[in-house]
Design a protein that fits this description.
The complex is a heterotrimer. Chain A is of the alpha/beta class. Chain A has two domains: 119 residues, Rossmann fold, CATH 3.40.50; 112 residues, Rossmann fold (3-Layer(aba) Sandwich), CATH 3.40.50. In chain A, 52% of the residues lie in helices and 11% in strands. The mean pLDDT of chain A is 97. Chain B is α/β, with parallel strands linked by helices. Chain B contains 22 helices and twelve strands. Chain B has a six-stranded parallel beta sheet with strand order 1-10-7-4-2-3, sandwiched between helices. The model of chain B has no long low-confidence stretch (mean pLDDT 95). The chains are: A alpha/beta, B alpha/beta, C alpha/beta. At the B-C interface, helix 2, helix 3, helix 4, strand 1 and helix 5 of B face helix 1, helix 6, strand 9 and strand 10 of C. Strand 9 of chain B pairs antiparallel with strand 9 of chain C.
Chain lengths: 245, 483, 236
């Protein structure tokens, strides 16, 4: 299958290893991955911070860039959520009903990574090998907006060598919330403190999730406290093979 | 105030819909209150577990939610019809209906009614609406003392404090604090009072019993008012509500206009949704329903005050309107990661938590509660818990847009956002910006950045920031010669 | 007063006018009926309803006795004696088999409500009533002030409320109870004794309303079955 990758601005700029892992994983499964050079950002941060007018060109750009593809993969639950639930809404609110219609169509072909693997490609064992103790944080937008359910956990359970440990109070937010972490950094930190306490209680080496942004938040805290526990994106675990060891 | 159709918002200077400082400032102080943090964590986790248990018992919970949402949406679309029907039914059954455009008018009406009843003391059922309009202050100014009879409201009133939760107003106080308040403020209390909740509860019973039995005027809010029959409904637990609704000669009920529901049968939906969402009980201990005046049973003089106070401004907002569906269960507070850490006072309004973060700005205009829509990580737990399916995260996002549009893009943040959008809407500009960002590597040591300038300094106060990699993904893609 | 009345009329017209303007700004009202796919009738019958009601009442700290119709008199007498109540107020038209103070040997006074003041009601140890309907799923009894149930103050002020519920009065679900009740009557729904969770979310039973609620559940089977199934008549 020919799959277009929307790397997300965050992974493209700060976490290229996540986007590379997504490419490696899908190619290993026998698919062709294309990365449209024009792709940039979905505009979620703008919309969620109140800058819908500024987001409109980003939304139009996403729709223009990906309109020609049958399947689009996004290694981020919240960016997928924004594409699926905000693009048409913002376009409609700002009076561009044609864009709203096109955005709805492109959104229907846009899949978060675990959705693509399980629902579109019909695979749960991707042949990965990751011999570490890992706990999974089901990020809020994957959990409640996309309702990916246990798709990520199903994929993780099939990874060879992995020791999966449940995260206490897993469904609680990590406190990131985009610009919330800056505008309300004290509250965000307080929420993060509890998330880190739960992660550390598992004794896991790695905390994984389907969103680089939440992982940047949790990982930033774990790193600051020199806990030794690290974060790793779901795509990176699923892309790992014995050859990587 | 910039509202839809220019409809008036709740006036400032009266009542409790506006805080004195922005949310992040108030929240910082709350976060440092160890006792508050401990109380909130215990209380919210307890009530979350109870709610989850009793919601899971019902096989048709989602169908009830959908019915609740639809009934409220229908009511709001035909609010004038149902209010007129309610008025005529209440009047036909011997009640008197008053209309109040705003808080000062409602306070004047209630004060006048209490004076007409020749009372200098009134007993009150817990009512956020009367707190919203500052009724107790208005009564006090008229020489009338209002006695709060709900245990938590009594605690808060005795301590000259403010409620911090819709349903459990003293959620921020623990048993030893409550014991100290009772010993200090209750003239008739047993000096040997312990801090066992049962003993504290009995002290409140004794304190209030004489007041109930001799009260001339009771004041309540309403959970529901049925247009079809003119029936008012109050749900409660302690029996203080029954006391106030049954024993006085005069009963005054102050109700927001959005509390009306069309049909008697609709109570079959809401009396399932509310108790399970609110206290996590299958049913609250007491529900009182009355229609006008019943000879020989209860108050023979009944007044219903219908309050606008910014509600029509919210109604006129097509995106904000669903916030008026709220049945004040407080489930969204109890599941909110923000509320759980800061409590209710930080929101500055009688409506705290996620629902308060949208409802307060809708009632006052965004200008007066501009920091509240940002007091959320948009995690969505509130929407999931809401018994009438108010999409709080989407309304928060919408309110943020309103706020930004009201500031006309002149803030430093707006300029930054505009620049980012300009850069990111074009791949060449975006790649150039990425290359500029890679200069951030100069700030990094061992792959992380430990300190960033304002406004990002809030991030690095507690978290490392990732150092930009040597090569972005798109640089790698091009370098490796991919299509 | 003319001016005040005029102002009130203005407020009414103004608020209704605002609503009409505001309503036009919203989404077009849904034309379809409200979806009512929730359960409107329960599927439990007879003793299943009794069992569920008893379990739910007990769960919310209500004392429950179960009996057959022929055993009601002794169940009521036992409840009063166990409670140690001496003065009981009764609603007019109660129609229950009550113990005769002359024969029980107990120091017991039964008085029918005569419009007593609140202070007077406060001097009674308890009250005995029937109910209009009971909801099994939520453990709720509903009183509507009709004959045998009395005005609302009667079941509020005395500290002990003994209520007799017959099997035919039990419905399974909340919507069934709503349908069975007359809205114009003053209604009180009671689910366990008064309670509060205002202090650290610790539930405390017994605040302002009766601190003890006791229910006698009367099964529908005739007294002929009473002896063979008498084991049902027990305190749970």
């Amino acid at each position: 299958m020919r799959i277009a990758l929307f790397a997300t601005c965050l992974a493209d700029t700060l976490y290229p290893r996540v986007a590379k892992a997504t490419v490696r994983l899908l190619e290993r499964l026998g698919h062709e991955v294309v990365f449209p050079a024009a792709s940039t950002c979905c505009g979620q941060m703008h919309v969620n911070t109140g800058y819908q007018r500024a987001a409109l060109p980003l939304i139009r750009h996403y729709v223009d860039t990906f309109a020609g593809f049958e399947a689009i993969v996004v290694p981020s639950g919240s960016c997928t959520g924004s594409i699926r639930y905000q693009h048409a809404m913002v376009a409609g609110r700002l009076g561009d009903s044609r864009l709203a219609v096109r955005a709805t169509k492109v959104a229907a072909r846009t899949h978060e990574l675990s959705e693509l693997l399980v629902d579109v490609l019909g695979v749960t064992d991707v042949g990965a090998y990751f011999p570490h103790r890992v706990t999974y944080h089901p990020t809020c937008h994957s959990l409640r907006l996309l309702q990916v359910g246990d798709r990520p956990l199903t994929l993780l359970r099939h990874v060879a060598g992995i020791e999966l440990v449940p995260l206490p109070d897993a469904e609680s937010c990590c406190g990131f919330g985009g610009t919330f972490a800056v505008k309300n950094s004290d509250v965000s930190t307080a929420i993060l403190a509890d998330k880190m306490r739960n992660v550390l209680a598992t004794g896991a080496e790695f905390c994984t999730a389907g969103d680089s942004s939440c992982l940047m938040h949790i990982g930033g805290g774990l790193s600051r406290l020199r806990t030794g526990t690290r974060t790793v994106h779901l795509a990176e675990i699923l892309a790992s093979t014995p050859a990587d060891r | 105030m910039s509202t839809f159709l220019g409809l008036p918002t709740a006036p400032a200077g009266v009542g409790h819909l506006r805080g004195s400082e922005p949310f992040p400032v108030a929240a910082r102080r709350a976060l440092a209150d160890t006792q508050l943090r401990r109380n909130l964590a215990k209380a919210t986790s307890t009530i979350r577990a109870k709610r989850a248990r009793v919601v899971a018992e019902l096989p048709d919970w989602e169908e009830l939610r959908e019915a609740g949402r639809a009934i409220k949406a229908h009511t709001l679309a035909h609010l004038d019809t149902y209010l007129e029907q309610l008025e005529s039914q209440v009047t036909a059954r011997g009640g008197t209906v008053h209309w109040a455009r705003d808080a000062p008018e409602a306070n004047r009406i209630v004060t006048g009614l209490v004076r007409s009843a020749m009372a200098t003391e009134v007993v009150k059922v817990k009512s956020i609406t009367t707190d919203e309009i500052g009724l107790n202050d208005a009564l006090a100014a008229a020489g009338i003392s209002a006695v709060e009879t709900d245990l938590a409201e009594l605690i808060v009133q005795l301590d000259h404090d403010r409620p911090s939760h819709i349903l459990v107003p003293a959620i921020h106080k623990n048993r030893s604090e409550i014991r100290e308040i009772f010993l200090r403020e209750m003239a008739d209390v047993d000096p040997g009072l312990t801090d066992v909740p049962a003993a504290l509860t009995q002290a409140a019973r004794q304190h209030l019993r004489r007041k109930f039995l001799s009260a001339k005027v009771g004041i309540s809010g309403a959970n529901f008012a049925v247009a079809e029959t003119g029936t008012l409904c109050v749900v409660e637990s302690e029996g203080n509500g029954r006391m106030c609704l049954t024993l006085p000669d005069t009963l005054i009920t102050v109700m927001g206009i959005e509390k009306v529901i069309p049909r008697w049968a609709d109570l079959g939906v809401f009396l399932q949704l509310l108790p399970r969402s609110a206290t996590g009980e299958r049913m609250n201990p007491y529900t009182s329903m009355w229609t006008g005046v019943t000879p020989g049973d209860g108050p023979q003089d009944f007044h219903l005050v219908l309050l606008d106070n910014g509600r029509t401004a919210a109604l006129a907002d097509p995106d904000g309107r669903p916030a008026l569906s709220c049945i004040r269960c407080s489930a969204c507070l109890n599941v909110c990661p923000v509320y759980e850490r800061v409590g209710g006072h930080a929101y500055g309004s009688v409506y705290p938590g996620p629902i308060g973060a949208i409802l307060s700005p809708l009632l006052t205009g965004i200008e007066d509660n501009a920091s509240l829509p940002y007091a959320s990580s948009l995690c969505g737990a509130c929407y999931e818990a809401c018994p009438v399916k108010i999409d709080i995260p989407s309304i928060l996002v919408e309110q943020r847009a309103r706020h930004v549009e009201a500031t006309h893009g002149r803030s430093a943040e707006a300029i930054t956002m505009a620049a980012a959008a300009w850069a990111m809407s074009d791949p060449a500009r975006f790649a150039a910006a990425q290359r500029g960002g890679q200069l951030g590597r100069l700030l990094a040591r061992h792959g992380v950045i430990r300190r960033l300038p304002s406004p990002l300094s809030g991030w690095t106060a507690a978290r490392d920031a990732p150092a930009p990699p040597r090569e972005t993904f798109r640089q790698w893609w091009r370098r490796t010669g991919r299509p | 007063m003319v001016a005040a009345h005029g102002a009130a009329m203005n407020a009414r017209e103004e608020v209704l006018g605002r609503i009409r303007r505001a309503a036009g700004n919203g989404p077009a009202p849904a034309t379809g009926a409200v979806p009512r796919a929730y359960r409107s009738r329960g599927d439990l019958r007879g003793s299943q309803l009794l069992d569920l009601l008893a379990a739910r009442l007990t769960d919310y700290k209500c004392s429950v006795r179960r009996c057959w119709p022929g055993e009601l008199a002794s169940a009521i007498a036992a409840a009063i004696l166990d409670r140690g109540a001496r003065s009981i107020v009764l609603p007019p038209g109660l129609g229950l088999p009550l113990p005769d103070p002359a024969t029980t040997g107990a120091d017991l006074t039964l008085v029918v409500d005569d419009g007593f003041s609140a202070e007077h009601l406060d001097r009674f140890d308890g009250v005995i009533t029937t109910a209009t309907v009971a909801i099994a799923e939520t453990g709720t009894i509903a009183l509507d002030g009709s004959s045998g149930q009395g005005r609302r103050a009667l079941t509020l002020i005395p500290d002990y409320h003994l209520c007799v519920v017959y099997e035919h009065q039990i419905v399974c679900l909340v919507p069934e109870a709503v349908a069975a009740l007359t809205p114009e009557r003053p209604l009180t729904w009671i689910s366990g004794p008064s309670a509060t969770s205002d202090i650290e979310l610790d539930r405390v039973e017994g605040v302002h309303g009766p601190r003890t609620l006791e229910i006698i559940l009367v099964a529908a089977d005739g007294p002929a079955h009473a002896t063979e199934r008498g084991e049902l008549c027990q305190s749970t």
